[in-house]
TrEMBL record:
<dbReference type="InterPro" id="IPR028098">
    <property type="entry name" value="Glyco_trans_4-like_N"/>
</dbReference>
<protein>
    <submittedName>
        <fullName>Glycosyltransferase</fullName>
        <ecNumber>2.4.-.-</ecNumber>
    </submittedName>
</protein>
<dbReference type="GO" id="GO:0016757">
    <property type="term" value="F:glycosyltransferase activity"/>
</dbReference>
<keyword id="KW-0808">Transferase</keyword>
<feature type="domain" description="Glycosyltransferase subfamily 4-like N-terminal">
    <location>
        <begin position="21"/>
        <end position="239"/>
    </location>
</feature>
<feature type="region of interest" description="Disordered">
    <location>
        <begin position="78"/>
        <end position="109"/>
    </location>
</feature>
<dbReference type="Pfam" id="PF13579">
    <property type="entry name" value="Glyco_trans_4_4"/>
</dbReference>
<keyword id="KW-0328">Glycosyltransferase</keyword>
Length: 439
């Protein structure tokens, strides 16, 4: 089939939703589909993302005035960096490989503060946030693609909700439409001024989409309850790359075999809190937490300054380098979201690392999965509970039995591999499109 995906978050974006559809596009192309992607031109590049096959064609459009200006600045910076890397002292190979981490972003300069102020103002004008300014240019390019490509089926990748609004345009033209919500449109973090609009859009999506997909059963149950949807809601979780060979070896000197090495490679939000872990680490001088993230809250910066021997900030690392580090750490840390309809995508990525997972949260779907799959341990996200677990893990590592009782191989997690998830999606897409469009 000829598929058209509408995705704001797509490479060079390194976001979880961008990674999700990078892998799914790769697998759908491998299954024989002709995949086209409509995405904004945000400029720049991110090393270490999974390569896309030649069967995937990306169509870029202007992202809007604010993001367009930022894209121009990124492209200019990229050209300067390329010229420097090509010079007599530049290390072009290292830059392309992206193995070296980029430091945590420094305190904001006056240019960054102006940029953030402009974007905050624009967020009051555009739904659901600054990314909504793509709506006009995305709609214009979508209409052109619908006319010239004549796709058999259109998909929308949420977030942002802008891609769902564009997908509704395709549905109104009579094309089969699949809305990959991931999480509900109306979520706990939705700005109060946009909650009514988010609920209205979510309802319309549930009424008009031929298929709605989410990442976990709790989100599916919530949408059924809110909107009494009669059509299917399929659960397609986040995944891990089950096609890749073992990730390339990480820097062997990064982790110390004499101490308990914890690694966290996710993002930080107000609804995903790490404070209790930081407090617990104060009582474990021989344990160390490494964090790979481009930005972290001020509380983490302060904690790292106060105890650099226990909390190490690695900065930004390319996706492939992160996968390699995950395979080297003693324990991978996963933190539950407050909302049980949201599962951190990193958890499924961790499954492919074949290392134990420490999940902080004891009343959410991931806690049950960690225990059922024997991939690690779950405990309440409180300082006392984490302290007790860290003490047990330090003893287990000292006795060389950290992995005892766990099942860290591929058996039992096959359904979370991207190739398996895409195969299920392929079946669903063919059912939605019908025989006339799949032959």
């Amino acid at each position: 089939m000829r598929l058209l995906l509408i995705a704001y978050e797509f490479p060079p974006s390194p976001s979880p939703q961008s990674l999700r559809w990078t892998y799914l596009c790769r697998e759908l192309a491998e299954l024989g589909h002709e995949v086209h992607v409509l995405a904004p031109d945000l400029g720049g590049e991110t090393p270490g993302l999974p390569p896309l096959p030649s069967g995937v064609r990306v169509h870029r459009s202007f992202p809007g005035p604010v993001r367009g200006m930022l894209a121009l600045l990124r492209k200019r910076k990229q050209r300067k960096a390329a010229r420097g890397a090509a010079g007599p002292t530049g290390n072009g190979d290292a830059a392309r490989d992206g193995a070296a981490p980029s430091p945590i972003r420094p305190p904001r300069s006056w240019k960054q503060r102006i940029s953030e102020t402009v974007q905050r103002i624009a967020e009051y004008l555009h739904y659901p946030d600054i990314r909504g300014e793509w709506r006009y240019w995305g709609r214009r390019e979508l209409q052109r693609l619908l006319d010239t490509l004549a796709p058999d089926l259109v998909l929308s990748s949420h977030e942002p909700a802008t891609s769902l609004e564009l997908g509704l345009l395709a549905a109104r033209r009579g094309l089969p439409w699949v809305a990959d919500l991931g999480d509900p449109v109306l979520a706990g973090y939705t700005a109060p001024r946009w909650r009514r609009r988010a609920h209205r859009l979510e309802r319309e999506v549930c009424e008009r989409a031929d298929l709605v997909t989410v990442t976990n059963p709790a989100a599916a149950a919530l949408l059924h309850e809110r909107h009494a949807r009669s059509g299917p809601i399929a659960v397609l979780p986040q995944g891990y790359d089950d096609r890749a060979a073992a990730a390339r070896a990480a820097d062997a000197t990064l982790f110390d075999h004499a101490r308990l090495e914890l690694l966290y490679t996710g993002s930080f939000y107000s609804f995903r809190r790490i404070d209790a872990l930081l407090e617990a680490l104060d009582r474990h001088p021989q344990a160390r937490l490494s964090i790979a993230a481009i930005t972290v809250p001020e509380s983490i910066l302060a904690a790292a300054r106060g105890a650099p021997e226990r909390i190490r900030l690695l900065g930004f690392l390319p996706h492939t380098a992160i996968l390699a580090l995950q395979r080297q750490a003693d324990v991978l840390v996963n933190i539950a979201n407050d909302d049980i309809t949201q599962i951190p995508g990193k958890f499924h990525e961790y499954l492919g690392a074949a290392r134990p997972i420490l999940h902080l949260g004891d009343a959410d779907p991931v806690a049950e999965m960690v225990v059922a799959l024997r991939r690690g341990w779950s405990c309440a996200n409180t300082a006392d509970a984490i302290h007790a677990r860290l003490a047990a893990l330090e003893t287990a590592k000292a006795d060389r039995r950290l992995d005892d009782g766990l099942a860290l191989g591929a058996e039992g997690i096959e359904q979370y591999g991207w190739s398996r998830i895409a195969a299920r999606l392929d079946t669903l897409l063919r059912e939605v499109a019908g025989p006339a469009r799949t032959t």
